[in-house]
Structures are given as structure tokens and as C-alpha cells.
Amino acid sequence: MNKAFPIAIILSTLFLLAYFILASSGLILSFEPGLSAGDISRWCERVGDGIFREPSNALSNLGFMIAGLCMFRVLSTGPINQQQNTFSGLNKLSMLYAGAAIYLGPGSMLMHGTHTEWGQWADNLSMVMYIIFPWLYNLKEMGRWSSERFLVIYFSIVVLYGYTRWVYGDDLGIGLDLFGLSIGLWIISETLFNFWSPVFRWVSGLVGFVVAAMFGTLPSEILSNPTEYWWVVLFWLPAVFASHAPRIKRTYNPWFFLGMASYITAFTIWLNQWSEMLCNPDSWLQPHAIWHLLSAFSTWCFFKFFRTETTQQI
């Protein structure tokens, strides 16, 4: 495990080298349907004919790789007390988080760089691989799962999602956006983590409606279209598995709040990337690239947040 950091550097470098070689030969490049060199992509940047179809939007994903490599560096050094804090050193869970953060970079780079369908699949898979970690990690603690059980559940979800996303597309054939749902599950499980009680355990699912409203889907819309929004029943998934109060405590200020602020700012930019004020197809300062960099910073903030964990007496 003490070689995790150099191995992560080598793998990241090999990916970039492989991309350069394959893209230079034209083997992995395409254009999204209806687009060609000189057109404007659906992310505002003008499409190029070089090794990156969207240069700024592709290269900004280096931010995720740098953030993840910094995590591996921190985990490889400094005082280690994994009985008190899982993220104080190298172990299967801390390396999984850092690895998922790194993979956000190659996944998104493959989409913005190649304009292929499999690149879009890799991008979407990388997002899901990252966002399911926090809420599953919370359920691990409140459900008293072993690390091995956590890993089995995590990779089972990843494999099943990867297959169904490839075969059935964005909604997995059942009208489910796992990435969006996982944001809600994280906030629900984090709230339950702080205010666990036998009663609140089963009330916690209502928090999901608040999160959905924050992202533009009001409870009235959900209740008026129960078939379309069937997945709200999964808001009670944390309640099913959170059978015990957590044994660890986290400090939320500043890192959790900073991470959330960074992500919300990034999401706001994402929503407005086509506005006249932000969209300039020929500029290297692309709003979608800023979304990538701010999101990468968020992964670092949440890493620091997890490192504040301390064991408490129940």
C-alpha cells in the first residue's frame, strides 16, 4: 500500500499517454451526431479537429486527477490512526475514494475529448462511481457493515449500473437517474448521520423532497406524477439500512460547507453555461471547464471533511 501514490501517478500518466497516442492516430475520435469541426458543442465550446474535440472542457479534467493524486499523497504521509479515522492513512476505502476522484478526470476527458458514445458512457460511469461512495459510506457506519461488505455492495452497484447504462441508456430503462438520486441519498444519509433516532430514521426520507426542490423538482410535481417519479421511494433507502446510531463524529465547518458551496456554484454555472454572459465558444475560459475545476475542488473538500472523523462513545 505504501506504493499507492507512485502507482496512481504512473496509471494517470499512462492514461494520458495512451490517449495522446490513440487520439493522434484517430482511432478514438469521432463527432457527436450533427456536429463537425467548427460547430459549437452542446457544452458551448467550439469543436476542434485536433486530439481534443473540446480542448478546454477536456483538459480541465486534469483538475480531478490532480485532486485525487493529492489525496493519495496525503494518505501516504502524516500520522496514521485508522482506528479513529478511516481517511488518516491508506486502506481499501480511502484509496477507493481517491481513485474514484481521479477517475472523474479520465471519464469526462473521454467524453469531451473523443465525442464518442462510449466516452459518454465512461463519463457517466465515473460520476456514479464517485457519488455513490459518500452515502454508502454513511450506511456502512450506521448499518455496521464490514469493509468487505461495503466493497461488495459498491462494486455490485457499479457493475450493474455500467451494464444497464450501456444497454438501456441514461435512465437505465426504468426512468432512474442514479447520479441525481445519489445526491439526495447523500444529504439524506448525512442528515440521518447527525440526527439519528428510531423515529427520525423513518422520517429522514422526507429530506429527499427538500433536496429535489433545491434542484428544481417541487413536491407538487412529484405527487402529481407518481409514475414518473416512482424513484422517490428510494429516499427511504438509508432508513432501511441505518439500524444504529453512528459511532463517529465529523466536523462540518469548514470543509463540508466549502465543498457544498463549491459544488452549488459549479452547478449554477453549469445551468447557465449557455447564457450570453458566460458562453464564448472560442475562449479557453469555458464555463463547463470551470464547472469541472470547481467540482474537482469539491472532491478535495469532502476528502478533508472525511478526515475530521473521530470516534465517539455511544
Topology:
Blueprint: H1 4-24, H2 55-59, H3 62-76, H4 92-114, H5 117-142, H6 147-168, H7 178-195, H8 198-203, H9 207-214, H10 219-224, H11 237-241, E1 248-249, H12 255-271, H13 287-306, E2 310-311
Antiparallel strand pairs: 1-2
Helix pairs in contact: 1-3, 1-4, 3-4, 3-13, 4-5, 5-6, 5-7, 7-9, 12-13
CATH top level assignment: Mainly Alpha
How many domains is the backbone divided into?
A: 1
Count of alpha/pi helices: 13
Structural class: mainly alpha
| Unreliable spans | none
Biggest sheet, open or closed, and with what strands and sense?
2 strands, antiparallel
Q: What's the total number of strands?
A: 2
Share in β-strands: under 5%
Write out key terms for the chains shown.
mainly alpha; single chain; 314 residues
Characterize the structure shown:
The protein is mostly helical. It has a single domain, classed as Rhopdopsin 7-helix transmembrane proteins, CATH 1.20.1070. The chain has 13 helices and two strands, in the order αααααααααααβααβ. The chain has a two-stranded antiparallel sheet. The longest helix is centred in the middle third of the chain and has 26 residues.
Summarize this structure briefly.
By secondary structure, the chain is an all-alpha fold.
